[in-house]
Amino acid sequence: MASRVCKAEMDNINSPSTDKITELQEKLFSTKKPLPIISELGSLGEDGLDVLMSFLEKEGDRPTPAVGEAYIELYLAKSPKIGEFLQENFPEGIIPLKSERNIDYSPIQQALVQRKFQEADRLTLLKRCELAGEQAMQRKWIYFTEVENFPSTDLKTMDQLWYCYSQGKFGFSVQRKIWLSLGQDFPKLWTKIGWKKGNLWTRYPNEFIWDLNAPVGHLPLSNQLRGVREFASLMNHPAWKESEKK
């Protein structure tokens, strides 16, 4: 009997209180900075994950970094119950994988949800080459004139994937925002986002940072050793100007 009492007491100690869960739930739906709360709820077991499912049910049709983080916490929980919930409500993730050229962006999403940023970066380059056409696929890099002809829909899809699944730290639009804040000065941008240190380019892959400790705008990468024109075309693409007008 005594051992049962001790076990019950230990279960109570190890389980989050109802008051704590309720407090976090209220904060989650009211705060302007939900990311730390989402992380805390994800660490509190089934009760915390239940709150995150409720959060996705309410907010999941408006992809944001918070929605992306909640999805990742649930996905990584590897619970049959949660798996059924995600499959029923978000079978393709939280980002609509729109493409004007029938390109499948789900591999990028899969890598980002699993925090495999280096793999996601490789896939992003691959999909950009695919978007540019067969010749770009063969040479494995892109001309600036090809970027100019990218559909806005596809660029926005890739950007949303990076932005929403990185706590808002990564993505083309993030890089553009920094670039504009620096007066469109590319040398300053390279340093700011960690692509260059002094006069030395950051070496691929080992000197890049493949996690959320990287500088804001660090990913996805673009090969500046071939010159700035391809990246400049990306930063000046109409896709971002359309979004900024909204």
TrEMBL record:
Q: What start-end ranges are recorded for coiled-coil regions in this protein?
A: none
Q: Ranges for the GUN4 N-terminal ARM-like repeat domain?
A: 17-91
In its UniProt record, a GO molecular function of this protein is: tetrapyrrole binding
| Alphabetical list of InterPro entries matching this protein | ARM-type_fold, GUN4-like, GUN4-like_sf, GUN4_N
Q: Which Pfam families match?
A: GUN4 (PF05419), GUN4_N (PF16416)
- Provide the Gene Ontology terms for cellular component: outer membrane-bounded periplasmic space
Domain GUN4-like per the UniProt entry, residue ranges: 98-238
Protein name, entry field: GUN4 protein
Which organism is this protein's natural source?
Dactylococcopsis salina (strain PCC 8305) (Myxobactron salinum)
